Structure formats: C-alpha cells, structure tokens
Request: fold
Amino acid sequence: MFAKLKERLESAKDATYQGGISLLLVLGMSLVVGAGVSYGALAFMGAFDTLVNWVYFDHSPYPSGRYTHKFDPRNSVSLDFRSANGNGFDALKQTEWADHGICRIVTTTAGVRANAVEAKWQWDANASQVRLEPVQLRGTNQLAPGQILAKPVALKFHEAHLQPVDGNFTENFRRAERNTSLLPKSIKPNKLLFAYKQGSFTDVPKWHILTALTIGGLCIGLMYPLMKLPRGHGPADAIIARINNDGIMPVKQGLQTAIICASSIGLGASVGRYGPAVHLGATLGSGFAQLLQLGRVNTVTFLGCGVASAIATSFNTPIAAVIFAHEAIIGHYSLRAFAPITIAAVTGNLVAKFHGRNFDGFQNLTEFRELLPEQYPMFALVGLISAIFALFYMRSLVSVGKWVRESRIPQWLRPALAGLAIGIVAIWLPNLLGLVEETTTQVIQDQGVEYTLKLLSLLILFKIASTALCLGTGMHGGVFGPALCFGAMVGAAFALLVDASQYQIFALAGMGACISSVVGAPISTILIVFELNQNYSVATAVMVAVIVSNLITNRYFARSYFVFQVQAAGFDLNVGREVMILKRRKIGEVMEREYLTIEPEADLASVEKLLRANPDADVYVTEKDDKLLGSITLAAAWDALHGGNGKSARDLAVMPEHWLTEETDLNRGFEVIEKFVGISVPVVNNAEDMRLTGIIHEANVIQAYNEAVKEARGEEQGID
Reply:
C-alpha cells in the first residue's frame, strides 16, 4: 500500500502544481497527520497534567487553583482559590495545606469580564464542604460593594470538581451591590459544575515543593544516560532538519525529548510547553513521511503539518498555527505546503475541541475600547522595554547553558541542583513555578492589587533566571511560556508606572512583544492575540509593540532564539534557498570519475604524447595508491618538454592551488571555482590520504547551481 501511495505522489512530480489524485492524497494524508499529531499533543499535555497533579495537588483535601463553569465561549464563572499559606523560611514550618483563604469570583458576560468579587473560603470538615463567606476588607482597604459577596454559599467536591450544595445557591450567589447575580445566565443549581483545571503552587507547602523539585530533578538527570540521549531537542532541530536533512527528524530522540519535557513540566520546572509540542509535532509529521518514503518536499510539508497541528491543539488558534509553521519553521509560504498545513491545523483544533481541550487562558481579558492616536507611542515604548528584557532573557539562556556545559558537574546531577535552587527561590516566589498560564492571567486581570510593582520586578528577574537555569541544566522544556509570563509582567509594570487605565492592554502588548522576539514569529504572535481576544484595538496595540521589539532584537541578537541556535550549529538562514540546497549536496554527487593520470616515473616523451592527445585536459600525477602528487598542463610544461633534460613526470607535477574533497558541499565548491583559473579541479577522498577520486569542471558546478535554483522555485510551486 505504501509503495502505491509513493508511486501516486511521484507520478505528477514534473507538474507545476501536483494535481488530481496526487494532490488529493497529500491533502488526505495531511488530515491524518493533523489528527495524529493532535492526539500526540493531547497525550503529551495530559501526561504532564497528570504528573503535576500527582506530585503536588492530589495530596490536598482542600480546593486549590481555578474552578470554572463555562456556559459558552463568551460566558463563564471562575472561582480562584488562594490558601492562607505564607512565604519565606517560616513557611517551611507549615507541613499541612491551609484549610482557609481567599476566593476571587470572576464573571464573564458576553465576553466582558466584570470586577472580581472577593470572599473568604473555609473548609468545613464536619460537612465535607467549602463555604464562601462575604468579606468587607482587602487587607486594610475597604472593598467596593460590587466586590463583596451578598450571602454565604457552600460547595462540595464532585470528584476533582466543585458543585453547589443546595438549591438556594443561585439565589445567594450575588454581588452585594444591587443584589446582582454573579451568573451570566440563568441555570439550575444542579446543572452548575465548576471544573477543576490545576491547583496553585502558592497553596503547596514549601517543603513539598523543595523536596519534589530536588528528587524529581535527580530522576530527570538519570533519564539522559538511561535513554542515551545527549541533550534535549527543540524547534531549532526542526529548522535544521528542514534546511539540512530533507526534513528528516530522528523519531526516537523526539519521543525521548517529549518524555523529558513532560517530566520537567510535571515537576513544576520553570519551562514552557509550546516548544516541546512544536518539536513533537514536527517529529511525528516527519516520521509519517519517512514511513511512506514520500521525498523531501512532502517530508518538509508534513513536518510543517505536524507543527501547525500541535500549535492549533495547544492554543485553539488554527490561523496563527498555519502562519507560525510557515514563518518560524518552514521559512517560506509555498503554494505546495499551504493547503495541507492549513488542513492539519484545522484538524488539530477540531480534535482538541472534540476532546474538551479549550485554551481559554487569555480570552476575554479586555473589553473593547477605541485607542487614541497619542497612545500608540506608549505601546512603541512598551516594545522597546520588552526588547531589552527579551535580549536579557535570550542571552541568559545562552550564557547559563554555556557555563553549565563547561562545568565539571555530571550531567545526571545538574537537574537536581537546578531543582534545589529553584525550590529555594519558590519559598518566597512560588508564582514562578510551572507553566504560569494562571499566573499570567492573574497578572493581566490584577490591575496591580496583588501583583504590585515590587512583586512584578522580582518575578521578572527570577523567572528569567530560573528558566535559564532549568534549560541550561537539562530540565528541558520550551522558551515560549516563560517569555509570555515575564512579558505580561513587563507590560503590567509599565502600566503601573505610566498609565494604569490601560493596564490590561499594556500587559498584553508586553507579552506579545517578548514572545515574538523570542520565537521570531511577529505575524503569528499578533494573530494569536487577536484570535484569543477577538479585540481589534488590542491587536493593533500589540502590533506596534511587536514591530519595535523585533527590530531591536534582530539588530542586537538574532531573528529569534531558535535562529540563534541554528546559526550556532553552523547554518546561515540569511542566504538564499538555492544556497541551502547547494550546502546539502556534496561534490561527490556531481564530480566526473574519468580523468587522465600518469605515473610519476614516466619520461617526458610519454608526458608529451598524453598532453598532445588531450590538449584541453589536465594530466594528474598519482602514486600507485592514487595519491595525488600534482597536475601537468601542456602550457605549463612546454619549456621542460623541449629542454630534453631527462626530467620525469614527478618533476613537472605542480600541486594545484585549489582542490576539493568528496564531502565538500557544493556551495563551498562554487566559491572555489569562482577563484579558480584552469581546466579542472581535482577531487580527493580526504585531506589526509589525498587519494584522487575524480575531477570537477566549472560547468559541473554551474549545472548544479541551476538545478538548485530550479529546486528552490519548485518548492514554492509544488514540484518535488
């Protein structure tokens, strides 16, 4: 069956755009890849969700984190539980989870989030329920009537979720101001179910965090030698596979990396999940094409399909996923790849929604408002400041990684030391642990109430430091999530200093500016924000910040952190696609294996006879083992041939100024030919043996260049 599919795909390879049954097969297979990668991404996310709950939150008998009842995408009610656990060294004495704290109730009606209502929560052990009771003060500050719960209400656990205890819940679940309901729509109490998402690290006893990170880090360190994995892989490896390996990625190492990443995220390491999802998607898409032996163009296309499906599954943003796959990974917007990548992204999004995986972290965060022209320079300033922090972040990742590699710390011990260090910091700042999507959402909604300027400043610095330490030591994960978090904090801190009335928009602008600079996908970033918020004003503000930030980071670092990694591996993405194609091919593929040789002891008469019979060719002098001693041309040897002084071919041989090896890439060969004056350039097996294996003419390289140009244009037009 696989052979027939391959035959169908190759049958139209000379067409401008593969059509008919061949195109239908590609589109059909892109649907399969999109669904398969989506299930793989869901399994990956489910694995670290299960692990983080097992390590931390399943041990608590009390509510922790966010519980949401979603009526529809634009109407919901969330209960955000915060325990009374303290921070600092004194918190290490707290061995149990706190049974009381503050609950913030957030209602979203028609896409607009209302001000949070604050209530005190207390666990009633006798009734096995949690009670929400009205409070009048936040610290020493009086709450407004619209922020006060009207009457006490009670909830009980239903598995991991919460549901009302009695039938009077909807009548009592109201604001004190005008006795308005906290429910955006009418509903019977027995139909309300506040679904659990994930607990909050601020509620976990500090000794538990410290122990879990240290022991878990040791386990991750031991995984590397057990799996014989030299390092974790990421999106940069997908780019390198596209430009240097015909889109072929090592499937085994990709799956091993996914296990490492899921373990790191599940332990609460300060890393992201989107980079691992992108790499896993690229690996699965490439692996599918390898299985069917579909050729380079289709392999790269399905690699892009995997990336798009993984992003669409993670974010529920299929449009941004398509653009991201082309913008950050594939590197071009070819006609051949666009249709299948689009189908894969849409399929991934549908599979995720079918299984209830809806990303709602940044939806409906801001209400629509028109921005004034004089406000846009402020968003440009946010982009400038965000660029500074993005540069600091990326350079920290590079510097810490280099320092760790050069240290004498064994690889298996490094993640444990990082876990210990981050666990100590988390005694004071537990908010920096894990994926921090909830923390980021809280920052954007907070308006400076809990996340003060001082706390934001500390979280920004320690988030960057902890992420650099995690990634540098082998607690592998993504760079996107941390950039998203500290970017929102940079924008929020700017708003508190300059103009708090635009707090949420500044936070989103900072978030977009930082992540676009780090991943090198400005268009995708703008689309992600727009798809999640569906707010045109926010999108334009983010667009201004993104442009300024990218201009600066491009100038002083690289187009992205991934591009920097690719360049550090020895690949230049700034050259033309035909140059990349030439770099993939070797001199040995185009050299001529028929050439003239003569023994070094041959007399001048033999040399002259051979040269006169082949006046337009070089004669190479070689030993019996084909070791190259030099070359002889008729023009260069004319005087010696008529001198009659008894010299041999060895005496006339001159080692050419230019020579190539079979493994030299064609681009380097082209550069040598440009400087070469003569008939042919010798090709040897390697620089040590210098055994002559062929020759290459200028015409050979020019023909290879023309083929590379044709192939580069063919990729854009759909010709394999």
Summary: The two ends are 21 Å apart (CA to CA). Residues 12-20 have pLDDT under 50 and may be disordered. The domain at 579-717 is CATH 3.10.580.10 (CBS-domain).
